[in-house]
Amino acid sequence: MTDQIITLEGRVFLRFNIRALSGLHIGGTETGVEIGGVDNTVIRDPVSNQPYIPGSSLRGKMRSLTEKYKGAPQNTDIGRVKIHSCKDREAYEKCAICQVYGVPAERDFSTPTRLIVRDVSLTKDSVKKLEDAETDFPYTEVKTEVAIDRVTSMATPRQLERVPAGAVFGESELVYSIYSGTDCAPEKDIDNLETVFLGLQLLEDDYLGGMGSRGSGRIGVEDIRVGIKGGDKYGPEPEWLVEGLEDLAALEEAKKDILQKIRERLLAQE
Hints:
By secondary structure, the protein is of the alpha+beta class. The protein has helices spanning about 55-70, 90-95, 95-100, 125-130, 185-205, 250-265; strands at about 5-20, 50-55, 75-80, 80-85, 115, 120, 140-150, 155-160, 170-180, 220-230, 240-245.
């Protein structure tokens, strides 16, 4: 068996803000409901006590929605849920989802996962606005919902903690790696970057977090910029290819130009 040789050709950095267009609920760890507390709390930073969006929530929803859009078979159990995961080399080599988001480590045909998604905190401006507002809890509101028994018509109230609409989280950062070498082709990785753009669009049209079918979790992606590091210019800051994109529609319009600039920047070095 020959040694596997993989070279990192470069990384693409996608940074943007996430605006809550409706109340946002991403659940935290509940240790019991205190008197005057709520049934469903949000996840918070243990130091600042501020709500944040875990990278795992953002990444997981993007992957899930992309799997459904592509009709990928849900063939692998992860806890109580099923996800798509290619189980042989032939399928993996054709699957942008598994190359971008990864497969279980025990797959002997896998290459490095391409996409990293960072946790994202509230912007300083949103922290100030929420601190000045009269919210039910620090930085959050409480939404009361009522469940109705279909037989007895008895109402059972329940409370949901949410980050209020209008709050902005940012900058969010997605880091996408491009490799060459054994079973890796930079041309394919650059093409597969479109899968990341698709995941963001699918997410914006769906919801993030819980209770989305009841109005929570609608988000907007805004203030987008795309940069690259690679080759002899792998420095502390990316070389920004585009900045100041207002929304995902603007990103879609600039997509072909962005991918071409990445090709020129990385493939010309080979």
